[in-house]
């Protein structure tokens, strides 16, 4: 019996699926295709392209979360259509946003969390921009009130500061006063701060978890140094704490540490919900200790979608799902849960750093005892034919993304490698250490130098 036309069509489609090169239908790559294509074909093209990215779970370069549990994933798919800015359309999401930053204000010991003020943002970079703007606006308002000029503001911070602060200074014409780091002072610690602070200083940024090494800058010591400056000169300089990572670790793992609103000089704190807040990207938070520290002229009230809506952000439309995911985790984990997760991750970080320190060619720069981030440098060996960039390339060949980069100005002669542990798993750590040892053994076996193909890294996460 001859096959009917429908059978022939199905067989032809099956053959097409095995023989077609989907890319032929997508080219050229940089103009919009003239016609449409079936959704299955469009999906397969994008899926196959993304498949060539690195494995997110093996990305030890990024601070950003790469895993959430099944319930969170389900909540995400149910709410990814919510626009955080449409507070009149999504009033419960807006209420949950307020609950979240009030929870953070309480966690960070605001004098009266009910009188604090905050907002969610796309990430901690936007949160840092808002905090910097608030300090600049308050400084200008204070200067105008007594008839002083408001030009040439400056912001004091470590040379190891995250790039978002350099962007802030560039975008808003603020002079960045970078305190250099050194072997003796590898982070901003208040030493010599009087050489950088003057009457045009809008504030000092203290980092809870330096991007390069993961170490905490001692906020209490910085505050004490500014107290001494105020006693000597009358200058009252506020502190903003960039807690992109550490503000969601220290309260649970180092509760004895004084760094937050307990210090009166700390006027604002930012953090990344999508880092050790454990949410998918992108979500940030910023909280001011009280409403007086956020100038009223930074809050816009617009009539939008039928309601009067206050908005405090650099962005307008942005996802609301991550805010709901943050609240889910606050409920799911609670204080004890966050403490258990971060304590375990820190233990894994200390295990990994201990193993690396025992390997021979490495010297630890940080061991993961602050945030679960550790960095190491090579010991001196004139007979060694490789460097950390070679090791980074070898590890990438095994799927691991481990950046190698020079430290900031003052220590730029030192190149380090750094890994970030997120929701640490000892089994994954053991796998990494096995591959690290194998790569080192291979490089140690070289009888001559090899070229460095690239010496860049994208570690500003």
Automatic annotation (TrEMBL):
Its cofactor is pyridoxal 5'-phosphate. One of its GO terms (biological process) is L-glutamate catabolic process. The keyword Cell membrane does not apply. Its EC number is 4.1.1.15. The modification N6-(pyridoxal phosphate)lysine is found at residue 275. It catalyses: L-glutamate + H(+) = 4-aminobutanoate + CO2. It holds the Pfam family Pyridoxal_deC. One of its GO terms (cellular component) is cytosol. GO terms for molecular function: aromatic-L-amino-acid decarboxylase activity; glutamate decarboxylase activity; pyridoxal phosphate binding. Keywords: Decarboxylase, Lyase, Pyridoxal phosphate. InterPro entries: Glutamate_decarboxylase, PyrdxlP-dep_de-COase, PyrdxlP-dep_Trfase, PyrdxlP-dep_Trfase_major. The keyword Transport does not apply. Belongs to the group II decarboxylase family. This is Glutamate decarboxylase. It comes from Demequina capsici.
């Amino acid at each position: 019996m001859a096959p009917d036309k429908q059978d022939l069509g199905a067989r032809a489609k099956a053959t097409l699926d095995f023989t077609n090169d989907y890319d032929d239908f997508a080219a050229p790559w940089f103009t919009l295709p003239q016609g449409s294509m079936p959704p299955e074909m469009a999906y397969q093209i994008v899926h196959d392209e993304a498949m060539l990215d690195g494995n997110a779970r093996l990305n030890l370069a990024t601070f950003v979360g790469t895993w959430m549990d099944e319930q969170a994933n389900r909540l995400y798919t149910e709410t990814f259509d919510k626009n955080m800015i449409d507070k009149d359309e999504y009033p419960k999401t807006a209420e949950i946003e307020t609950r979240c930053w009030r929870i953070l204000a309480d966690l960070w010991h605001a004098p009266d969390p009910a009188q604090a003020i905050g907002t969610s943002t796309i990430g901690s970079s936007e949160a840092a921009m808002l905090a910097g703007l608030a300090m600049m606006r308050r400084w200008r308002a204070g200067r105008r009130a007594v008839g002083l000029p408001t030009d040439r503001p400056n912001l004091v911070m470590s040379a190891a500061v995250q790039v978002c602060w350099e962007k802030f200074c560039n975008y808003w014409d603020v002079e960045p006063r970078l305190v250099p780091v050194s072997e003796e002072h590898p982070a901003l610690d208040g030493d010599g701060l009087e050489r950088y602070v003057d009457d045009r200083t809008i504030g000092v940024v203290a980092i809870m978890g330096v991007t390069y090494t993961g170490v905490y800058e001692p906020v209490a010591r910085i505050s004490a140094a500014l107290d001494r400056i105020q006693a000597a000169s009358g200058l009252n300089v506020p502190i903003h704490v960039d807690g992109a990572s550490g503000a969601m670790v220290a309260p649970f793992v180092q509760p004895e540490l004084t760094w937050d609103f307990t210090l009166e000089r700390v006027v604002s704190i930012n953090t990344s919900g999508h880092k050790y807040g454990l949410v998918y990207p992108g979500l940030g938070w910023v909280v001011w200790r009280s409403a007086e520290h956020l100038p009223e002229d930074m809050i816009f009230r617009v009539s939008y979608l039928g309601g009067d809506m206050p908005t405090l952000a650099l962005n307008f439309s942005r996802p609301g799902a991550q805010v709901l995911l943050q609240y889910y985790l606050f409920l799911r984990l609670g204080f004890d849960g966050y403490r258990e997760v971060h304590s375990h991750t820190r233990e894994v970080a200390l295990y990994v750093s201990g193993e690396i320190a025992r390997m021979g060619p490495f010297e630890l720069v940080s061991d993961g005892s602050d945030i679960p981030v550790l960095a190491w440098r090579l010991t001196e060996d004139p007979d060694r034919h490789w460097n950390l960039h070679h090791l980074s390339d070898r590890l990438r060949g095994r799927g691991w993304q481990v950046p190698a980069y020079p430290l900031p100005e003052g220590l730029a002669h030192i190149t380090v490698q750094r890994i970030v542990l997120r929701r640490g798993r000892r089994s994954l750590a053991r796998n990494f250490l096995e591959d690290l040892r194998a790569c080192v053994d291979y490089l140690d076996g070289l009888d001559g130098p090899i070229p460095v193909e690239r010496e860049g890294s994208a570690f500003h996460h």
